[in-house]
Amino acid sequence: MMRDLFAPAGFLPLLLSSPAAATLLYVSSYSGAITTLNLTLSGNNATQSTLRSISSSNGCAPSPSWLQLDQVNSRLYCTDEGLTTNVGTISSFTTGPDGVLQQLAKTETISGPVSAVIYGDKGRGLAVAQ
Q1: CA–CA separation, 60 vs 71, rounded Å?
Q2: Strands 87-95 and 64-70
Q3: Signal peptide: which range, if any (predicted)?
């Protein structure tokens, strides 16, 4: 997930027109890790782009299936499908400006949470699809 959210149509021209633009990306896989990547696009047509790993957390293991970023409140939520266990989980993390994740909580759910969305007044709700 991208830390800086741009409209899809306007994203690429914005990055290509700037001398250097850095974006934090949060990615997960069934390896169990959430990794923060720093994507820096620079040069004409982003020919000198770099992508590097800057942080990793196993706080959503074993089967992270969805990441939901709450950029306003500097939070990242992760659903774990529980493919290898009898239960799933929802984990929450703070997101630092440097991309480092600090785990706040981990709560068990029934097996299979596959996505989540923030909703409600001031984004205080989290709906999870099973």
Answers
A1: 19
A2: unpaired
A3: 1-22
